[in-house]
Design brief:
Blueprint lengths: L2 E5 L3 H12 L3 E6 L3 H5 L11 H9 L12 E10 L4 E14 L4 H14 L3 E4 L4 H7 L5 E4 L5 H4 L16 E8 L8 E7 L3 E10 L2 E10 L14 H15 L1 H6 L4 E2 L5 E4 L4 E2 L3 E3 L5 E4 L5 E2 L7 H18 L7 H26 L4 H12 L1 H9 L5 H4 L5 H12 L6
Parallel strand pairs: 1-2, 1-6, 2-5, 3-8, 6-15
Antiparallel strand pairs: 3-4, 7-10, 7-11, 7-12, 8-9, 9-10, 13-16, 14-15
Helix pairs in contact: 1-4, 1-9, 3-9, 9-10, 11-12
């Protein structure tokens, strides 16, 4: 029986481990924390998981929260007018299918428990390069699914695919309850020119339904003010001050809000990077990168968990097709290439949000304010960015697309 090791118990790692275990393989999942420690620890992210990624989870029976997680079906988008303190552009786009945001303190431990019930083995161990040189020779395939610590640094940066050399944003996150809801449930995305972005999205946390408040600060700007703040309440109160100053319509929604729990906050920054997918150790053992170990995007466009789920799906199918073959360097590169053909679009989508809107993009956003079909098209592109990005490859394509959408009667 083939034996596979997966280093990292995040969205990609645990989802793939469960899929492989269901295929009858022997899977060893390495995590630096127990399920209980994750459950009782700090929040890990605020991710919107869209239809395609949710479909892949359902295929493995991992949709444990469909009846309890708020079903989001809208994208509320605004660009702030800093002088008038009102939205310069505002529209609402409806998604064809609902999307979710589940506190990973709920999600990951539940998946880890499910993996063990299927017969999978979880090893609690912090892995470094020395440990890798013990693990790799004793498995037919080793996958590394953690990219923000020491493991990610072992992969070589792909200069051709990478855009940034330093963090594009400074981040702050806190989970709230008591936020005034929008009539249509979904993420509220606010762009504040030369300052940063603010998002707030309904989700499910340890205590039940919540709203996830998330700031993206342009380094050195007014939103870049989190460095000395180390508790959830302080992040919330500082966040409300910023909302009152820059986007007061969002501050009003938080008038009666409070944090869900003392661990429901996160702050920091990291540099988005694309890495070469095959890691070679000093002892010439090789492992394949998965998820944010090799494609680490800024969370501004909500693509991280979706990329991870798609990666787990593609890797699962590639391993299944090669179950009797060799998991050699050629197979590893080909497997990553399959995923890159998909994830390159969400990487481009994410990088687009990190830059000031180019004229063609601004035209689309303006049009969406008066054209529900355009607003809905943009909203649905968060599940499949390619469907919109292909129209931004030239001025002619953009104009033809806008002309077609102007005649469209389709609103979802």
């Amino acid at each position: 029986m083939r034996e596979i090791a997966i280093i990292g118990a995040g969205q990609a790692g645990v989802q793939l481990a469960i899929g492989l275990q269901k295929q009858g393989l022997t899977v060893h999942l390495y995590s630096d924390r127990t399920a209980e420690a994750i459950r009782n620890g700090r929040v890990l992210s605020s991710q919107g998981v869209f239809h395609t990624a949710l479909k892949y989870e359902r295929e493995l029976g991992l949709n444990f929260w469909d009846n309890s997680c708020p079903p989001n079906t809208c994208i509320h988008f605004s660009i702030a007018d800093l002088v008038k303190k009102i939205p310069f552009i505002h529209w609402e786009g409806h998604t064809q299918y609902f999307y979710q945001s589940i506190d990973q303190r709920l999600k990951i431990p539940a998946w880890m428990d499910f993996f063990e019930k299927l017969g999978g083995k979880i090893i609690i161990q912090s892995i470094d390069e020395e440990a890798l040189d013990t693990i790799i020779p004793s498995h037919d395939l080793t996958l590394i699914a953690t990219g923000k610590g020491e493991m990610g640094q072992l992969f070589e940066r792909d200069d051709e695919k990478s855009t940034f050399l330093q963090p594009a944003r400074k981040l702050a996150l806190v989970y709230l309850e008591g936020v005034e809801p929008y009539p249509y449930r979904g993420v509220s995305a606010n762009l504040i020119p030369n300052v940063g972005e603010y998002f707030i999205m309904p989700g499910l946390s340890l205590s039940g339904p919540c709203e996830m408040m998330f700031f993206e600060a342009i380094p050195g700007g007014p939103f870049d003010c989190w460095e000395d703040i180390n508790d959830a309440n302080s992040i919330f109160h500082q966040g409300v001050k910023l909302l009152k100053e820059y986007i007061p319509w969002e501050a009003k929604r938080c008038a009666h809000a409070k944090v869900t729990d003392s661990q429901a906050f996160l702050r920091g920054s990291y540099t988005p990077v694309i890495r070469k997918p095959i890691l070679k150790t000093r002892k010439n053992n090789i492992a394949l990168g998965l998820g944010d170990a090799v494609v680490l995007n800024d969370p501004i466009a909500g693509q991280g968990a979706n990329n991870a789920s798609r990666a787990a799906k593609i890797y699962l199918e590639s391993i299944g097709k090669n179950i009797a073959g060799s998991f050699d360097r050629t197979w590893m590169q080909e497997t990553f290439n399959q995923w890159w053909e998909d994830v390159k679009w969400s990487t481009e989508w994410t990088n687009l949000f990190l830059m000031p809107p180019e004229p063609p993009v601004l035209e689309l956003l303006r049009m969406a304010e008066k054209n529900p079909a355009m607003a809905n098209f943009i909203a649905n592109a968060f599940d499949d960015p390619k469907q919109l990005l292909i129209y931004l490859k030239s001025e002619e394509k953009t104009k033809n697309f806008m002309a077609r959408m102007a005649l469209s009667e389709v609103v979802i």
